Amino acid sequence: MIPKKEKFKKGSWQKIFLSVLILFFALGVVGFLALSNLRINQKRASLLSQIETLEKEIQILGEKNEKLRAGISQTEKESYLESKIREQGFVKEGETPVVVKPMEESKKELPEEQKNIFQKFFEKLGF
C-alpha cells in the first residue's frame, strides 16, 4: 500500500514559524549578551592597566614628596641658612673677610701653526 501524503493542518505552519522566530530571537539575545560581555571585559582590562600606571605614579610622587619634605626640614636648620648666607659673601661680626684673587694667566704665544694670516702679518709689522 502506498501511503497517502499527509496534509499539514492549518495551525502547523504557524507553529513552525513561531518556533523558528523564537529560536532566532533567543540566538540574538545570547549573541548580544556575549558581545556585551566581551566589551565589558576589554574595558575592565584597560581600566586595570590604567589603575596600575596611576598607582606607580602615586608611589613616585609620594617618594618625591618625602624628599621635598626632608629638604624643607633641612633648610629650616640654622646651619643651612648660615652656609647659604656665607656663600653670598657675608661674614659674622668680628671676622675679617679675605678675598683670594685668581692668578692672572700670562699671555702665551701661539705656535706658528695656530696663528692665522692676520696675526702673522701684524707680528711682522711689529704690533
Write structural notes for this entry:
The protein is mainly α. The chain has a domain at 12-92. Helix content is 65%, strand content 0%. The protein contains 3 helices and no strands. The longest helix is centred in the middle third of the chain and has 64 residues, at 12-75. The N and C termini lie far apart (141 Å).
Structural class: mainly alpha
Q: List the total number of helices.
A: 3
| Terminal Cα span | 141 Å
Which descriptor suits the 3D outline?
Answer: elongated
Percent of residues in beta strands? under 5%
Number of β-strand runs: 0
Oligomeric category: single chain
Q: From N to C, what is the helix and strand string?
A: HHH
Determine the mean pLDDT.
84
User: Whole-number radius of gyration?
Assistant: 46 Å
Describe the sheet with the most strands. Answer: none
Approximately how much helix is present in the residues?
55-70%
* Uncertain parts: none
